[in-house]
Amino acid sequence: PGKQPEREVDSLCPYCGVGCQLTFQIEDNRILAVKGRDGPANHNRLCVKGRYGFDYVHSPERLTKPLIRREDAPKARALDVDPANPLTHFREASWEEALEVAATGLARIRDTHGPDALAGFGSAKGSNEEAYLFQKLVRTGFGTNNIDHCTRLCHASSVAALMEGIGSGAVTAPFYECANSDVIIIIGATPTVNHPVAATFIKNAAKRGAKLVVMDPRGQGLTRHAHLHLQFRGGTDVALLNGMIHTIIEEGLTDPAYIERFTEGFEELKARTTAFTPERMEGVCGIPAATIREVARLYAQAKAAMIFWGMGVSQHTHGTDNARCLIALALLTGQVGRPGTGLHPLRGQNNVQGASDAGLIPMFLPDYRPVGDAEIRDSFEAAWGRDIAPHAGLTVVEIMNAAHRGDISGMYIMGENPAMSDPDQSHVREALAKLDHLVVQEIFLTETAAFADVILPATAFPEKDGSFTNTNRQVQIGRKAIDAPGDARPDWWIIQEIANRLGLRWHYSHPREAYEEMRGLMPSIRGISWERLERAGSVTYPCDSADDPGQEVIFGDGFPTESGKARFVAADILPPDEMPDKDYPFVLTTGRVLEHWHTGAMTRRATVLDAIEPEPFCHLSPADLVAAGIEPGETIRVRTRRGAIALKARADTDMPSGTIFIPFCYAEAAANFLTNPALDPFGKIPELKFCAARVERT
Ligand code: SF4
């Protein structure tokens, strides 16, 4: 404190999708402190993660040398290590040897078992350029579309519904557009925890007079600013939303001119929702019919209204249906494309939007061009000089299932941690152990890296240049602030080295070259050159030309679908995959806490953050604790049909009785040993927000 930094470098926060701009203060190649900058998404604000979550980069646990698994180190016991010597299963290697072993193993599987025996997981923590190069490598070097990343565990169902309904998977307006809203709905999202700076804009809008409606089975920080809190039963979103859709149609609250001009499928939606009266839906979702009608009127009659949603909507086997209903609400009432209106799925990881845009998904090439479309494939094949497989690849959970079956035997994982993030961990870790060849590119020996045959040490966020796209569709520049430790190398360089050993001929010398190539293939960012990004720091897409300022509120004049119209898609009411019963009477839901990010690889190694929330806990309602005879702070065991973990109990007045919550960032009690891998059939997202659980005293 008080010490003047030697130098300052303007960059971005590496955590959530808000994309706060910040300045690293540096001395002797160490980050001393971080301060907020006046970026479009943060106006100098930072949350506790952005402010205090940076010293993970200086952790003594950073990987600084390439590592190769020792021949006598069985993968089945990958996580069975001496904490004092966690690298015991590996030996150090030169870059030349490690790259050769990594690439040779991948090539052998490709050439023996075929391209689809390989798969790659990229990362939403990486830059746009890294995502672009990684998917290009998997598609042209491996020869498969088995490429995915954590968007599959995040908003894949939202994107499926948005692509189908309005022809675009991104938000229709930035979150700060809520300053112009008079009604704001937040459903299945906890912005004060997961998007804290965005939450400040929402709070300010509520203080100014916007009516905030929070729809969530759990209580949360924003409820104290809310006009209404609808604490509906978990997993019944479609019933609640169909009740609102029914009300809007039945009471004549639609915008007929908007529906006529900009939509199709209204009559089918009307017919399919006729039976979903609020009076019937009350019995399903637990919200009084009068309240459902009140909220429907409030939203439909608002001059301008926005809907925000998060994983509470998307991480269900009916996640796509949930999002379809939200889209229908906006289309029925014309609450899209004007100031203060919009649909905004709050993006999780800092670059999950950009990584998806860049094609790090199995069914789409960059800019969401379907890989199954021959004409589109031709254009990418011409640009990349290689054939692309014509069929969509497998998604995250499908890839793990295929690895478990033995259909996939080689993987390259860059920056993802499926041995913590994916549902049903016993199954996932067995799958990783079965892989014949696993290459992991990481900054720490994560739970996933522990299963690797080769570990390639990569650079952390402040150690590299790159562009990142936040939840608002703002492409922003992150700048190298410090040098990487030891022999750690930039991800783009490592990907290129692997690519060239797989027979490709790449010659990138800086991420800017990858970005400019990508820009040439992505109409959405056509007008955003690297040079412009360096100058402006942030430009919103779609951006057609160098003098286009970028378009923030979009779709005021039609939609990017074949007909130019948006499409209503009705949703039926389906139960979650696994309902509570007498053996497993609780509903388990998982998520994040304010201080920790995703699987904790970075924030658990950030001193201040881990000091605030150092250990795992299970949230229960005070009434459930009393009924079970459990004291707050007591160690309990939580069990589901897939596994059990032991952790402390925490009394939480935000929890409804019968529901428990466990954060998934703690390796010592990994919540995903418990979660259900059942998939939404459209978005292929697992049902991380609902499964049946039992609480036991230890
Ligand atoms: Fe970082 Fe998100 Fe916090 Fe901003 S709100 S400082 S981007 S974690």
TrEMBL record:
GO molecular function: 4 iron, 4 sulfur cluster binding; formate dehydrogenase (NAD+) activity; metal ion binding; molybdopterin cofactor binding; NADH dehydrogenase activity
Record GO biological process: formate metabolic process; respiratory electron transport chain
Domain 4Fe-4S Mo/W bis-MGD-type: residue ranges: 6-61
GO CC list: membrane; oxidoreductase complex
Superkingdom per UniProt: Bacteria
Record key words, sorted: 4Fe-4S, Iron, Iron-sulfur, Metal-binding, Oxidoreductase, Repeat
Family in the record: In the C-terminal section; belongs to the prokaryotic molybdopterin-containing oxidoreductase family.
Designated name of the protein: Formate dehydrogenase subunit alpha
Organism annotation: Oceanibaculum indicum P24
